[in-house]
Amino acid sequence: MRLLANTEILIKGPLFGCRMCGNCLLQETAFICPMECPKGMRNGPCGGVTPEKHCYVDESRQCIWYAIYKRAQKTGREEKLLEILPPLDWNKVGTETWGDVVKQVRKIGTAKFFGSLVSKDVVKKDEVWDSVFKTVRQPSWWLGDSDYHPPLYSEPASNLERCLRNGEFVVATEVTPPLSADSGKLIRDIEHVKRYVKAINFTDASSANPKMSAVACCKVAADLNAEPVYQIAARDTTRTGLQSNVIGSGQFGIRNILCVTGDSPNVGPPPASDMNFVDIDSVQMLWILRRMRDDGIYLDGRKMKHPPMFFLGAATSPFASDPELQAIKDHKKVNAGAQFFQTNLVFEPDRLDLWLEQLDKRNILEKVYILLGLVPLKSHKAALYLHNKVPGVYLPGNILSRMEKAGDRAPEEGIQIALELIDSVKNKKGINGIHLMTLGWEEVVGRIVTESGLCPSLSGL
Ligand code: SF4
Fold first, then answer.
1. Is 431 helix (H, G, I), strand (E, B) or coil?
2. Any atom of ligand 1 within 6 Å of the Cβ of 69
3. How many other C-beta atoms are found inside a 10 Å radius of the C-beta of residue 264?
4. How many C-beta neighbours within 10 Å does residue 36 have?
5. Virtual CA dihedral for 400, 402, 407, 410, nearest 10 degrees?
């Protein structure tokens, strides 16, 4: 076995950049090993690709997932990228996979397998290859596929889901978790925004910075009769922790869960931890949670007596990559279990159409609700920071110059820009609401919601 493993690394190392993860998925990743991604992504890119298609964690390197997507596109294998790939089985890391492949080839017949290599019948060839490699890369405890699985429950899991099902254009916002153990400001902010919005997100140590935990903030919100959205970052989550947390969070009345990858530890305070091999990525989180809820099983397949109930969401970054490539990742998240998306910040409504068209082509728009990420800019400096430093966020020149010219009036100008953006997106096909990210400026939520007319019952407040 050691000899086989050494031979495998000797050949696959230089050819594919193989790192002997022991759970080979080269067949599905256009024969480029994704394991050199510094965030350990195994199911597609994060939202951090730079405009030059480099990796935001290490800008000297091209985003490996962009390279995979481009090659798959060139060879007509994009749809292969939809298959939900499993997390690593750590007992296999460092071991060879060829032994399993050989076993599988023997099982289906050596002549049949090698015959398929020269066959011109593409469908048959794919079938034979899948009968070997899919069995190897999709263990029985995972069984990932490329299909859409509609939720298997009828009554809405949360009020947010109920409103979206009813066709309301909803507003969600974010309240910043406190940096210390004092919850006074948190409570005041929740009390202030709750009358204007359908749900409040609590981030999970955003920017890889420790803060009050999202689940604790959600509990505080639920106790104040506000509806929380519990964000869980893959960066700080293990497969065991995830399953335990969602069963526990249900006990606090938390019914909306948003799965995100999380920022690289490199953007947080030193000393940096490592994301090189994350335990699970955001797509895998969605797959695990959907199966817990709808199939009533744990990741290992054990049945649970009382499955948890939740409305499952994911993040997306419409401008992180080329629209048709971004749509592949979004399609994959919807297939894995995402019922709603909250997007990265958007400042160019027209550019959004290209992405929406791609989602429409994939028939995703009727399967997922989209809440568009908007922010009221407070200053020119903040605008520049978002434009230059936050991956996937672009501010057009006219917005940057309006903020610059506004001088002391910048906060007012930022509110006006936000109102204009709301106006231009609220009737777009496929957009079901907005997600106001205030970046600590929670007091402005009431004014924006009221002046935009998104909550008519509040006009005149
Ligand atoms: S941009 Fe994201 S997906 Fe691409 S290599 Fe970097 S961390 Fe990985």
1. coil
2. no
3. 23
4. 16
5. -90
Please, are residues 424 and 396 in contact by the beta-carbon 8 Å criterion?
A: no
269-317 confidence digits (pLDDT tens) = 888 877 666 799 999 999 999 999 999 999 999 999 999 999 999 999 9
Each residue's pLDDT tens digit, 124-143: 888 888 888 888 889 999 99
- Centroid of ligand 1 to alpha carbon of 264 (angstroms): 9
What's the CA gap between 43 and 28, in Å, rounded? 10
49 close to ligand 1 (CB < 6 Angstrom): yes
H or E element in which residue 146 lies: none
Cβ atoms 432, 164 nearer than 8 A: yes
Percent of the chain at pLDDT > 70 equals: 95
Question: How far is ligand 1, taken at its centre, from the CA of residue 172, in Å?
Answer: 28
8 A C-beta contact, residue 430 and residue 359: yes
| Residue recorded with tokens 């049945």 | 303
**DSSP secondary structure string for all residues of 214-271:** HHHHHHHHHHTT--EEEEEEGGG--HHHHHHHHHHHHTTT--EEEEE----GGGSSSS
CA distance 66 to 63: 5
Q: Does ligand 1 come within 6 angstroms of the Cβ of 56?
A: yes
For 39, the 3-state DSSP assignment is coil
Tell me if 81 sits within 8 A of 72, measured CB to CB.
Answer: yes
Contact between 34 and 65 (Cβ < 8 Å):
yes
* DSSP secondary structure string for all residues of 70-85: HHHHHTT-GGGGGS-P
- CA R_g for the chain: 23
DSSP 8-state code for residue 401: H
H-run or E-run covering 59: none
Ligand 1 pocket: which of 57, 278, 319 to mutate (most atoms <8 Å of CB)?
Answer: 57
pTM of the prediction?
0.94
- First vs last Cα of the chain: how many Å apart? 73
Minimal-distance CA residue to ligand 1 atom 8? 37
Query: Residue 266 burial (CB < 10 Å; 0-12/13-18/19+)?
Result: middle
Contact of 382 with 439, CB cutoff 8 Å: yes
